[in-house]
Amino acid sequence: MNFINLSLCVYKDGVEPNQLSFQDGASAITEQLIFFHDDVMFILVVILVLVGWVMLTSFTNKHYYKYLVEGTTIEIIWTIIPAIILILIAFPSLQLLYSMDEVVDPSLTIKAIGHQWYWSYEYSDIEDEPIEFDSYMIPTSDLEEGDLRLLEVDNRVVVPVNTQVRVVITGADVIHCFTVPSLGVKADAVPGRLNQVSFLIKRPGVYYGQCSEICGSDHSFMPIVVEGVSQEKFINWVASKEEEL
């Protein structure tokens, strides 16, 4: 079993049949997104159960019904309580939004360009010569055992773990969307405009994403694969890419 399959077995870094939950977070932002979702879902379930119980009781008991028809007290209660709940949800939501938009000093910058229908990448921070390559989906007929259909590519985006990475995103023809769920990354690739996202991968692994914008007939055939490796392996990868140039 290779490293890719082992990573998918230990962590949910790829899609699974009948999957309902999120993929496992590989960055701090993704973990915060999952925690926030779980907290809001808990509040939602409590509200649904409470409101359902009140409605059911009012239908079956006339004594409850008369208190719900009119009255200053009940008006104050169902105005103040929802306001408090919304405030409790709003503050962590805004904090998370600001954390996602914040771009600290990156150690590595990668430019991702969306095409119909593939991605091209540029490592412009490399001292000797920038590394540029295109990334195409591997056809189903060429997949090896354990590979994910419609998600594997011939050239992966390789980044070091525990390193702040910035991705500058744009489109060459139409609007695309650069999305990697496990990293909490999603940004539109708009022609003539630069968007940027940043992430820090906490553990080695292979993380899959897809274009999330309907960009044409082959929209579902331009996957994104980010591989997190150690610093030593990343240096070796850069050296091997430079030898190919």
TrEMBL record:
UniProt record, GO biological process: ATP synthesis coupled electron transport
Regions that span the bilayer: 40-56, 76-98
Cofactor: how and how many bound: Binds a copper A center.
Domain of life: Eukaryota
Membrane topology: Multi-pass membrane protein
Catalysed conversion reaction: 4 Fe(II)-[cytochrome c] + O2 + 8 H(+)(in) = 4 Fe(III)-[cytochrome c] + 2 H2O + 4 H(+)(out)
Main location: mitochondrion
GO cellular component, as recorded: mitochondrial inner membrane
SUPFAM superfamilies: Cupredoxins, Cytochrome c oxidase subunit II-like, transmembrane region
GO function term, MF aspect, one: cytochrome-c oxidase activity
UniProt keyword annotations, A-Z: Copper, Electron transport, Magnesium, Membrane, Metal-binding, Mitochondrion, Mitochondrion inner membrane, Respiratory chain, Translocase, Transmembrane, Transmembrane helix, Transport
Keyword Cell wall biogenesis/degradation found: no
Residues covered by the Cytochrome oxidase subunit II transmembrane region profile domain: 14-104
Cofactor: Cu cation
Residues covered by the Cytochrome oxidase subunit II copper A binding domain: 105-240
InterPro entries xrefs: CcO_II (IPR045187), CcO_II-like_C (IPR002429), CcO_II_C (IPR034210), Copper_CuA (IPR001505), Cupredoxin (IPR008972), Cyt_c_oxidase_su2 (IPR014222), Cyt_c_oxidase_su2_TM_dom (IPR011759), Cyt_c_oxidase_su2_TM_sf (IPR036257)
Compartments (UniProt record): Mitochondrion inner membrane
Record function comment: Component of the cytochrome c oxidase, the last enzyme in the mitochondrial electron transport chain which drives oxidative phosphorylation. The respiratory chain contains 3 multisubunit complexes succinate dehydrogenase (complex II, CII), ubiquinol-cytochrome c oxidoreductase (cytochrome b-c1 complex, complex III, CIII) and cytochrome c oxidase (complex IV, CIV), that cooperate to transfer electrons derived from NADH and succinate to molecular oxygen, creating an electrochemical gradient over the inner membrane that drives transmembrane transport and the ATP synthase.
Family according to the record: Belongs to the cytochrome c oxidase subunit 2 family.
The protein, known as: Cytochrome c oxidase subunit 2
Provenance organism: Spirocodon saltatrix
Gene expressing this chain: COX2
